[in-house]
Design brief:
- This protein is an alpha+beta fold and 241 residues long.
- It has 2 domains: 155 residues, no CATH class; 63 residues, no CATH class.
- The chain is 39% helix and 17% strand.
- The chain is built from 9 helices and 10 strands.
- The strands form 4 sheets. The protein has a 3-stranded antiparallel sheet with strand order 1-9-8, with no helix packed on it. Strands 3-5-4 form a 3-stranded antiparallel sheet.
- Strand 4 and strand 5 form a beta hairpin.
- Helix 8 crosses helix 9.
- 25% of the residues are buried.
Length: 241
């Protein structure tokens, strides 16, 4: 894939558009090896009207990251040849309004870096130009920021950046593989949100952290607030940050 990546400056424009009229329509939904972030799962399970446990069992596979040692989740592809996304149809994506961040960002590839002295985070962008994609022949052009605004990626990046920070903390404070209990708690808190909600309000998990009372109240019914609580819980309890 590295051979198809091209850096672009922050204000640089690129031509790209995707529509059913494109000859390559739906081709990017094949040959998948797609990781899902916690916020991806939150949006998809709500779109499909499933509990987080049902969604995870039906549509995902769990792996242990070879570098982080953390539970990671990938999307199951269909049994048909070609490793096809389970949500694609001849007319396009059936979960399009809640599609994962990687689908929204494509053909951009976004990376972030943190200044060790100031803690400030910088964004860097590249274009992924794959041979099968004819979207670059379109007349429409935009900057990376315009593309992200149009695809409504900001909320995804907010949570995905927090996830990357959790991985950084884990590697710094608890290098090597986690014990089984810690892996299970990590997976439940960040991926199986409905089960985490039950655990925090019916048991004593919240006694282990300091939390904004209003955010806790919101987490009882708001999945987005719940994910904020879950990420803070993971950092404070599992990685002592």
């Amino acid at each position: 894939m590295e051979d198809h990546l091209y850096p672009i400056p922050p204000d640089g424009k690129f031509r790209f558009a995707c529509s059913p009229e494109a000859a390559c329509f739906n081709e990017c939904c094949r040959d998948l090896n797609q990781f899902l972030y916690p916020y991806d799962i939150l949006r998809l399970k709500k779109r499909l009207d499933l509990s987080s446990s049902e969604f995870l069992q039906r549509y995902t596979t769990q792996h242990i990251g070879p570098e982080s040692g953390l539970p990671m989740v990938t999307l199951k592809t269909t049994h048909a040849p070609g490793r096809i996304c389970p949500f694609v149809t001849p007319k396009g994506c059936r979960v399009y309004p809640d599609r994962p961040a990687s689908c929204r960002t494509y053909p951009l590839v976004r990376a972030i870096s943190r200044n060790r002295a100031t803690g400030n985070v910088s964004e860097h962008f590249m274009l992924l130009k794959e041979p099968h994609c004819f979207g670059f022949d379109a007349s429409k052009s935009q900057t990376a920021q315009q593309w992200m605004d149009d695809q409504q990626i900001e909320i995804y990046n907010h949570f995905n950046d927090q996830m990357l920070e959790i991985i950084r903390l884990k590697n710094q404070l608890r290098p090597g593989p986690l014990d089984r209990k810690s892996r299970q708690l990590f997976y439940m808190a960040l991926y199986d949100l409905d089960r985490f909600r039950t655990r925090i309000f019916e048991n004593t998990l919240l006694e282990q952290i300091a939390m904004d009372p209003q955010k806790l109240t919101d987490a009882g019914t708001d999945d987005t607030a719940l994910l904020e609580v879950a990420m803070q819980w993971v950092k404070q309890v599992l990685f002592q940050s």
